[in-house]
Structures are given as C-alpha cells and as structure tokens.
C-alpha cells in the first residue's frame, strides 16, 4: 500500500476504514434527523395542548429551511389562530399558500381567520380558489360557507357547510362551523346536534364544547353552560375569550366575586383585551360600584 | 298605520325599498321558510309556490270570494317585525289589492287585526311594520294572516307577486350588558370563538 501511495497522491483507505467512515456519516445524519424530528414533535405537542406561544417559539427555533416548509408554516399559522392573533395567522397562511398552492389541507382555519378580520374580498377570492383546486375536500366548502356567513346569508352558508360535511364526514371543524350557522338562524336543536357530532369525532375540539356552551347560554341554562365552557377551557387553558365567557356566566349565576376573579385571570393573560375590560366594568356597574368601573 | 310604498308616482328621489337590503344589513332575517303557508283560494299553477319563489314575474291569483287570505303559521312563537308585499298596479291593474289587513294570533279563531293599509296604485315593495300594544316594533305570534279586503277598480280576484316576513336578529354578544352588537373590529374579534 505504501508503494501505491508513493506513486499516486491519492489517499486510499482500506475497506474497513471506508465502511466505518460511511457508518459515522450515516449516524450523524440519522442523529440530525432524529433531533429535527424531536424538535418538530415537541413543538407540535405544545400546539396540541394549545400552548400557542410555546409552540410558535419551538417552530421558529428550527433551521430556516425547515421553517419554510408547508407543515411548519401551517402549524405556526394555526398556533396564531388559536391564540386569537388573526393578523399574524393570516400572514403565515399567505406564506403557506405561496409555498404549495395546490394543497388545501387545514386552510379552513385561514378562511375563518379572514372571517374574523372581515376581509370579504380576500375571503371570497380564497373560497373560489380552493373550490377550483379541489371540490372533494371539506376545507374548500368551509371557506365558501364562511364567505356567505360573512355576507350574513346564513341559509346559503348552511347549504355549503352541509356539503363540506358530506364530502368529508370525519372533519370535526366543518360540523362546528355548521353549528355556528344554525345558531345564527336560531335553530338551536340542529346546532346542538352538529356540535355533538364534532365532539363525537374529536373530543378535544374545544370549539365544539364552546358552541354547546353558547347554545345553553342563549337558552339561559347558565350552570350547564358554565360546565361546557370549563370543558373547553380544560382543553385550551390560555384562551382569554373562554375566560371572559365563563366570567359572564358566573355573574349571571350570581357568583360575582368568582366572576371578577376569572376576569382578572383573563386580563393577566392579555392585559389589553377590550372585551374583558368591558365585562369587568359592567360587573362593577352591576354591583353598584360605578367608581371602580371607571 | 305604518306603511311605506316604494316608487310612488311623482315622488322624486324616493329611496328604493328592498327587503333583501335589510336582510344583508344583518338586522333582520327572513323567516317565511320556518312557517306553513296556506291560501284561501288559488288558481291552479298560481299558488303558494309562486308567492314564495323570489321571482317577481310569477304571482298568486286567488279564485274565490273576498276577503282573500294568506295564512302563515309558525311552529313556535316568532317575533315578526316586517311584512313585505310586492304589488304592481301597472302589471295587475284591477287585480292589485287596494286594502290589506294584517292579523295576528295563536290560531284561526284567535286573530286580531293589527294593521290595515290602503294602497293607491302601488308599483313595488310595500313595507308593513308590525308594532305591539306599547308601540315597540315586532309582535310575538304563532300566526300571521294577510287579508285582501278589496282590489283596485273593485276587482274580484287579486294578484300578489311576492311576500316576505322579517324577524329581528338577536345577535347580542355574550357579555354582562349587551345593548347592541359591537361595531369596532377589536371587540367583534374577541366576541366569539369560531
């Protein structure tokens, strides 16, 4: 071998060294992959527990080329959505669509974020695009349903959301949106049926628990409503809106002190939440303490 | 009498009344679909379907003695705020109703007259706002009956092109005091989870 080395300035390794080298490269690659998967998994786990800020930090700490993938961008957008930060959610969803225009997975959340921000033109454009891409996915029909709901045409929205449910019977979110539309047309029994379907498919779907609570609140069954709002809160513990609703129901049941405590907790999570402050002021007003209300 | 007629001849600048505009504004909902409709009489092919088909070219033609009745019965007590009737003198002439009475109650033998309106050559949508005894808009009732008491030029039968029934939308947010729906984006965003 030394003879060979004198002749050609090429480093020749033995078979054994080669295979050892290859194995170590493979191991490094596998380790790197495992590490990556572990990080993604941890962030996704935080998202499933609705620890939105934690999961966003987790996802953003991944290497940049991983962040630019469809899955990660989608997850970050969903995290912002569940944290009620619809502006940020919409920004990330726009990047999601730019990455892979032919995929419609989970874009129903995009349409709902646009519904919250009341961007009619963008929502209608999205709905048309999605239906053009795929008529057999619930997400497209959910977007169309949201579009009509924003225009206050609830009967049409119900039609399209029923279609969404037909094409994908295992999508809980379509049932939840259908339930919301039934509430808008004051068909409480059908709304309850839809929400229960959603929970049957996915027991951790906090929107559906919230929906049932809302129906019960409208029917003035306050203690039952509180139970369901609490179930939703168990699943999504950092939701300011849920805390707000629980506080309102507690006040309606006469537990004003508990109500104020819940509102303080909500405001500690989100100090600038206008709805919480309005409710706190209303509670003080009701307790005949107008000075504290101001 | 609370009656508004659109495009009265000679009224320049009269706002075009349109029930769908009100529906789109989100303050009212069309609830005719939740009710059972029946007529005192009709010519074959000119019945309830033509009265409720959203088409202003098809109409209901009655075929019996006056008064001609449209009965609208709801499954549960519903608050009715507006009754919209489309009548067109230019198209229907002696078939156009000239005196319409709106009655409300629990069933056929329990109806009380709530509004009587006189029409003079209407061409378009008529809005009849129902008010309860205390002059608040909206009557909570099981049944609404629209009676055509007489027609223009003393015609026997009547044409009615379209009828819509509006109920107020109760969209109060979940909060301790909810005087009305919030309008600012920040409050509306935090009003509900969807």
TrEMBL record, chain A:
Q: Which residues form a coiled coil?
A: none
SUPFAM superfamilies, per the entry: HCP-like, TPR-like
Subcellular location field: Nucleus
Q: Is Methyltransferase included in the keywords of this UniProt record? A: no
What are the ranges of the TPR repeats? 138-171, 172-205, 206-239
Recorded GO CC terms: anaphase-promoting complex; cytoplasm
Q: What UniProt keywords apply to this chain's record, in alphabetical order?
A: Cell cycle, Cell division, Nucleus, Repeat, TPR repeat
- Report the main location listed first in the record: nucleus
Q: Does the keyword Cell division apply?
A: yes
Superkingdom classification of source: Eukaryota
Tell me, which GO biological process terms does this entry list? anaphase-promoting complex-dependent catabolic process; cell division; metaphase/anaphase transition of mitotic cell cycle; protein ubiquitination
| Record Pfam families | TPR_1, TPR_8
Q: Which PROSITE patterns match?
A: TPR, TPR_REGION
The UniProt transmembrane annotation reads: none
**Which family does the UniProt entry place this protein in?**
Belongs to the APC3/CDC27 family.
This protein's name: Cell division cycle protein 27 homolog
Q: Which organism is it from?
A: Hirondellea gigas
Organism taxonomic ancestry? Eukaryota, Metazoa, Ecdysozoa, Arthropoda, Crustacea
Automatic annotation (TrEMBL), chain B:
- Give the matching InterPro entries: APC10/Doc1, APC_su10/DOC_dom, Galactose-bd-like_sf
Q: Which domain of life is it from?
A: Eukaryota
Alphabetically ordered keywords of this record: Cell cycle, Cell division, Mitosis, Ubl conjugation pathway
**GO aspect biological process, one term:** cell division
Bias class Polar residues marks the residues at: 1-10
> Residue ranges of the DOC domain?
7-192
Classification via SMART domains: APC10 (SM01337)
Matching Pfam families, A to Z?
ANAPC10
The record's Gene3D superfamilies line, in alphabetical order, gives:
Galactose-binding domain-like
For this record, an example GO cellular component is:
anaphase-promoting complex
Q: Where is this region: Disordered?
A: 1-26
So what does this one do?
A: Component of the anaphase promoting complex/cyclosome (APC/C), a cell cycle-regulated E3 ubiquitin-protein ligase complex that controls progression through mitosis and the G1 phase of the cell cycle.
**Family to which this protein belongs:** Belongs to the APC10 family.
State the PANTHER family in the record.
ANAPHASE-PROMOTING COMPLEX 10, ANAPHASE-PROMOTING COMPLEX SUBUNIT 10
Its name, as the record gives it, is Anaphase-promoting complex subunit 10
Organism in which the protein naturally occurs: Hirondellea gigas
């Amino acid at each position: 071998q030394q003879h060979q080395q004198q002749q050609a300035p090429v480093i020749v390794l033995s078979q054994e060294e080669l295979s050892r080298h290859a194995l170590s490269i493979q191991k490094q690659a596998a380790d790197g992959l495992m590490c990556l998967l572990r990080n993604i998994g941890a962030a996704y786990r935080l998202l499933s527990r609705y620890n939105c800020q934690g999961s966003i930090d987790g996802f953003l700490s991944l290497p940049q080329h991983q962040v630019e993938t469809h899955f990660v961008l989608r997850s970050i957008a969903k995290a912002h959505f569940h944290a009620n930060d619809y502006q940020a959610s919409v920004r990330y969803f726009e990047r999601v669509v730019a990455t892979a225009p032919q995929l419609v997975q989970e874009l129903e959340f995009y349409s709902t974020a646009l519904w919250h921000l009341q961007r009619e033109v963008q929502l209608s454009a999205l709905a048309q695009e999605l239906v053009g891409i795929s008529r057999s996915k619930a997400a497209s029909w959910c977007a169309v349903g949201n579009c009509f709901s924003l225009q206050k045409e609830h009967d049409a929205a119900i039609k399209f959301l029923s279609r969404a449910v037909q094409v994908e019977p295992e999508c809980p979110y379509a049932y939840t949106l259908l339930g919301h539309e039934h509430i808008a047309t004051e068909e409480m029994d059908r709304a309850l049926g839809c929400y229960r379907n959603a929970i049957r498919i996915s027991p951790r779907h906090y929107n559906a628990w919230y929906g049932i609570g809302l129906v019960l609140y409208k029917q003035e069954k306050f203690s039952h409503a509180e139970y369901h709002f609490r179930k939703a809160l168990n699943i999504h513990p950092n939701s300011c809106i849920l805390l707000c609703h629980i506080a309102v129901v507690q006040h309606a049941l006469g537990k004003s002190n508990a109500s104020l405590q819940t509102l303080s907790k909500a405001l500690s999570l989100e100090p600038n939440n206008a709805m919480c402050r309005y409710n706190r002021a209303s509670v003080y007003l009701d307790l005949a303490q107008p000075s504290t209300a101001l | 009498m609370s009656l508004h007629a659109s495009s009265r001849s000679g009224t320049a600048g009269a706002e075009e009344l349109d029930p769908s505009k009100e529906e789109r504004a989100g303050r009212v909902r069309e609830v005719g679909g939740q009710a059972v409709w029946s007529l005192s009489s009709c010519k074959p092919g000119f019945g309830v379907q033509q009265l409720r088909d959203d088409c202003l070219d098809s109409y209901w033609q009655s075929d019996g003695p006056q008064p001609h009745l449209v009965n609208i019965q709801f499954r549960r007590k519903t608050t009715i705020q507006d009754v919209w009737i489309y009548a067109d003198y230019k198209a229907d002439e002696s078939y156009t109703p000239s005196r319409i009475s709106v009655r409300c109650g629990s069933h056929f033998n329990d109806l009380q007259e709530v509004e009587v309106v006189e029409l003079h050559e209407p061409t378009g949508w008529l809005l009849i706002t129902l008010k309860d005894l205390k002059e608040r808009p909206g009557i909570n009732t099981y049944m609404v009956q629209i009676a055509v008491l007489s027609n223009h030029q003393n015609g026997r039968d009547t044409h009615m092109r379209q009828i819509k029934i509006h109920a107020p939308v109760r969209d109060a947010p979940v909060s301790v005091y909810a005087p009305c729906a919030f309008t600012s984006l920040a409050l509306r965003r935090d009003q509900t989870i969807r």
